Amino acid sequence: MRLTSKLYAQHLGWHFKKHWKVQGNRVPRDTGAKNVLASMGFQVKEASDVLKPKFERIELNVVGALPKPILEDENHPNWKSSVCHIFGDENVPLEGVLQAQHLTKSLVINGLPKELEESLKNMTISPTVDRNIQNSILSSHVFDAEQEKLPIVKIPEKPMFVFPRTYGITHPRRNRLLLSKLIFESEKLAGKTVNSQRKIVNNADFRFTVEKNGQKIQFDLGVDTLITSRKGISGIKEMVDGEIPELFPIHETISIPRKNIYLDKDYYPVPSAIFGNPHTIFVHFSEEDVKNLHETPVTGSQFKSRNMLKAFTVAASRARQLYGSIENLPEPIVVQSIQTDGKTFHFGFLQLNTLNLTGSEGTKNYWFQMDNMDLFRECGMRHGRPVLEGYNKDVFRVLSAFYSNC
To answer: What angle do CA 240, 246, 250 make, to 5 degrees?
Structure first.
């Protein structure tokens, strides 16, 4: 190849970068100018301090700004040296109802008390009320205008599939709308005489702490809807005999997280006033919020046990408010509990007789429960038209009987 002037040409940009790299690695020499200026009384500063001066930052409490989160360590104001097992809204007992029996020292009876059973037999629902209930189901599951991003859909058999995100009515709003409409229909059936004895509280929190078999256990739970009454529900008069089944080798506090940060104080949200007696609680259930620690689906027994522990926490915190730190109550406290995920309902009836939860001998608490009941089989849109199939009117009959019970 013939050498031309083009081949002899140099890439000035490449040479400039190389020269900059070499010169950039040079170490500046000490000329002694800094010492001379210092001896003459001149102050020598770094160039970075002059070009980018440092200013002291002043934190301002702006209205609406969120406070910084408090670190969960020994400096936390609620730090305790003793460890406590805290059962929260997102937890479920590993062994379901059996473990809940040991935690609350309760006997489980399938079915409702005789008084409630008799009121259910005498209760009839008119076609007009049935039509109102069906419209309520459709309005809460289909016709509501909320359009929010729903949780990610996963199939256990094919976890690698990525389904498109869907928009619609969120689970909490759907349950809240449905229960509010069912309670409203129950109020219309009960009449003014019963309604004047009831008050409704939304989003109530309860806390109950107990020492059990040398360990501290705290139930820190919330209830979505609490119905209070002027007079508490009468407990059953007959005694219930039975023994709590064995849980060995599993310990009763298994799957309950242990923490050092907690409030060592019981809490009942309603003051001890005229309408301070708990009557019925409504609990929302969502698989997105309530999970096992080992990430397995919530079983039917765990679904029922969560309802049981919610009712126990409400009754126990009320007992502490009335009687303080006593064991056997002078009068039992009764709480009716209804848990639903928007479709499946679980009804329970708790009678709290004692707060002495140690051991399995002596006075026990009673938990009456029914099997799960589906309000409907299918509700949604099909070919652009709303569909409600398999409506079960017995669910509302039980709910209305709970509301009117006294």
So the answer is: 140
Please report, rounded to a whole number, the percentage of residues in the chain having pLDDT higher than 70: 97
Cis peptide before 93 (omega within 30 of 0): no
Instruction: Tell which residue, 175, 143, 121, has the closest CA to residue 285.
Output: 175
Query: pTM, whole model, 2 decimals?
Result: 0.81
Q: How large is the average pLDDT for residues 381-390?
A: 92
Q: Are 334 and 232 in contact (CB under 8 A)?
A: yes
Nearest to 317 by CA among 223, 199, 183, 198: 223
Q: Please provide the DSSP assignment of 303-356 as one string.
A: HHHHHHHHHHHHHHHHHHHHH-S-SEEEEEEEEEEEEESSSEEEEEEEEEEES-
pLDDT range class, residue 9, cuts 50, 70, 90: low
**189 vs 134: CA distance, rounded Å:** 16
Asked if 229 contacts 277 with a C-beta cutoff of 8 angstroms, the reply is yes
- The number of beta carbons lying within 10 Å of the beta carbon of residue 24 is 7
Contact 220, 262 (CB under 8 A): yes
Closest C-alpha among 326, 329, 333, 361 to residue 349: 333
CA distances from 32 to 13, 28, 35, 37, 43 (A): 36, 12, 5, 9, 14
Residue 51 parent element (H or E): helix 47-51
Cβ atoms of residues 111 and 370 within 8 Å: yes
